[in-house]
Amino acid sequence: MNQKIIILSTLLLAHILLFLSFVRFPGTFWPVFTVTLAILIFLSVKAGALKFKKITFKHWLYIVISALFLYILSYVGIEGIKWVYPSLFEEMERFYDVVQPVKA
């Protein structure tokens, strides 16, 4: 099968599954999201687009450094928002009290 068709169909399937995760099943987002991700990984492996290699120490180092960088970036961003706009988080909490998803 053509590689472009596989990639485009996988992207379409990813959008459909994520739509279902957010809109159709908002109360069970994380389980549905996990199953969605597993399906996409399975299809990528089956199509040959994803190949597994042995994880080395260098890979683990990249993982840890990336996780720390993401955590630091998020922390700095949140603290910066608190400094620039201190009441934002209280306003967001009030907003989500009004428009939160309907729980089944």
Chain-wise SSE layout:
Blueprint: H1 3-24, H2 29-47, H3 57-84, H4 88-99
Helix pairs in contact: 1-2
Summarize the structure in words:
- With 104 residues, this protein is mainly α.
- 78% of the residues lie in helices and 0% in strands.
- The chain is built from four helices and no strands.
- It has helices at 3-24, 29-47, 57-84, 88-99.
- Helix 1 (3-24) runs antiparallel to helix 2 (29-47).
- The model has no long low-confidence stretch (mean pLDDT 79).
What's the Cα radius of gyration?
Answer: 19 Å
Main sheet summary: none
Query: What are the secondary-structure elements, in order, as H or E?
Result: HHHH
C-alpha termini separation: 42 Å
Strand-residue fraction?
under 5%
Extract low-pLDDT stretches: none
Class derived from helix and strand content:
mainly alpha
Helix count equals 4
The percent of residues in helical segments reads: over 70%
| Total DSSP E strands | 0
Q: How does the overall form come out from the CA principal axes?
A: flat
Rounded mean pLDDT score: 79
